[in-house]
Amino acid sequence: MASNTGKDAHNHAGQLVIHPLDPIFDENSRVLVLGTIPSPKSREVRFYYGNPQNRFWRVMAALWEEGVPGTNDARRDLCLRHHVALWDVLQRCTIAGASDASIRDPVPNDVGRILSAAPITHVFCTGGTATRLYQRLIEPVCGVPCTGLPSTSPANARMRLDDLVAAYEPLRRAADGE
Question: How many domains does the chain have?
Fold first, then answer.
């Protein structure tokens, strides 16, 4: 059995994850921000970018010079007040933990439901995998190109918070209608 345990440690098959969160948007949303799929921590806390090490909410707060929202309701409020819709590219996939590199069998979300309900002018994807999956699976269907932004994940340690805030400035400008 010991060799089986070792074999399991190298098994990167992952698990089927079905997206458990509703999108955040309203009829005033101007930008749509898409991650890949909620991480295990995000699924646990039932909200987007739920890992406390993820810098997404610090970036969003800095863009509008606000305090970092500490609750799911405050995070939802920040998005809606600033015309930001939030969801993910994938409706389901097989993934090992939070490793986007391990994604297999991706099935996209139907972003058309947001695009038809809100005056979205820009779509932004957080991270390279979300951007590539959007371009491959969603853009050909909806016809709306996306702008790729750097990942705010702790795995993207090479970017400092100030660099991320600067990289996300186009999102703020689009959300503010500039």
Answer: 1
